[in-house]
Amino acid sequence: MNDTPKPDVRPADPRFSSGPCVKRPGWNPTILDNAFLGRSHRAKEGKARLGQAIDVTRDVLRIPDDYRIAIVPASDTGAVEMALWSLLGPRGVDMLAWESFGKGWVGDVKNQLALDDVRVLDAPYGYLPDLAQVDFDRDVVFTWNGTTSGARVPDGNWIAADRKGLTICDATSAAFAQSLDWAKLDAVTYSWQKVLGGEAAHGMLVLSPRAVERLESHVPGWPMPKIFRLTKDGKLNEAIFAGATINTPSMLCVEDYLDALDWARSIGGLDALMARADGNARIISDWVERTSWVSFLTENPEHRSNTSVCLRLARETLAGLSAEQAASVPKRVASLLETEGVAFDIGAYRDAPPGLRLWAGATVETSDMAALMPWLDWAYAQAVATADD
To answer: Read out DSSP for 79-105?
Structure first.
């Protein structure tokens, strides 16, 4: 019999999705009233707003002045593919993969670009590959934060400062929540719909001077789709990095991104954003510590994400369940909480081990995360009680 009482307090906002993520506190559609709509994005004011998005991005993320920043098509996926297709080829490449998206980049480099010299360093969900084995005489492709595994690199200390190859970093669920070591990164990508809760379809590509040098000295050995072309007549197309986007952007989404950046600055910038994510992750960690049925998918605390927090049933709990029950219980928990209107989209990623995934990024209110914890206990008790149904 289940004697776990239903909690009295509900999260004010039940959106804990890992992407698209919840909007910033206080958001409402009226902030889009002044969006630059029905006009060419190449008009003076349109270009100014796109340029402003780039400038404020540099300010909030503390991107070095000599790094180029571009708004590019197709979200983080488009930005990563643009970097891979444009930069890879002159050297062998080490591909690091420990979650779904990193594994996807491996597939693209091996099967689509069909490079001859590709070395894959991988690890199961919740773990990192041996970073000491990475060869920085080669190009290196990795995700900073594994959105689908809850595992992140602890810092940039493992990356060689005197590297000969380029580092290409998918940072989509790390940007604005974790401290990126820009001096160690040559091409960085992210999308608006993660930590700042922006809208989809736009990606950001940040290039170091070393990446620009590669672009201007290397001609890829494959045809380049128009939306991937970053050079013109053998030189970097500087206009792209000043707001002249390759294709037509949504100025509605740009307005929303500008609002999110303004909110970030208003609360104290990057330090405040990271503190909010850390605070949310700490609430989950404290709950896991006192809860017997659940544990982190990422066991090493130094490798544990503060944004996409991935949970699984504890080993002791699994010992008392069949394989079918172990897979069904987390799904039942997620379904129960969605039905109750308490938490949306918290099931594990489809390719990840069975479990739960809670978004803890800066736009999530700490009070909402705290209110969710008792509901997880209630839903688990309900799910186990009906596991054989």
So the answer is: HHHHHHHHH-SSS-EEEEESSHHHHHH
Tell whether 205 and 238 lie within a shared domain.
Answer: yes
Same domain, 156 and 257: yes
Alpha-carbon gap, residue 266 to 196, rounded angstroms: 13
Same domain, 254 and 275: no
Work out the average pLDDT over 150-169.
98
CA of 106: how far to CAs of 151, 223, 227, 271, in Å?
18, 20, 21, 33
Rounded Cα distance, 352 and 74, in Å: 24
Angle, in degrees to the nearest 10, between helices 323-339 and 366-385:
130
Do 123 and 106 meet the contact criterion of CB atoms below 8 Å apart? Answer: no
Is the four-CA dihedral 252, 254, 255, 256 of positive or negative sign?
positive
Answer for the pair 364, 17: CB distance below 8 angstroms, yes or no. no
Tell me, yes or no, whether 20 lies in a domain: no
Q: What is the pLDDT of residue 325?
A: 85
User: pLDDT digits over 307-344, tens only?
Assistant: 999 999 999 998 878 888 889 999 999 999 999 999 99
Q: Are residues 289 and 200 located together in one domain of the fold? A: no
Sign of CA dihedral 270, 276, 282, 288: negative
Q: Judge if pTM exceeds 0.70.
A: yes
Buried residues in 340-358 as b, exposed as e (16+ CB within 10 A): bebbebbbbbeebbbbbbb
Looking at 230, 246, 265, the residue that finishes a domain is 265
Is residue 9 situated within a structural domain? no
pLDDT in tens, 66-85: 999 999 999 999 999 999 99
Q: What DSSP character marks residue 21?
A: P
Question: d(Cα 366, Cα 122) in Å, to the nearest integer?
Answer: 34
Model confidence pLDDT, tens digit, residues 218-254:
999 999 999 999 999 999 999 999 999 999 999 999 9
CB atoms within 10 A of CB 185: 24
Structure letter (DSSP) for residue 356? E
pLDDT at 263: 98
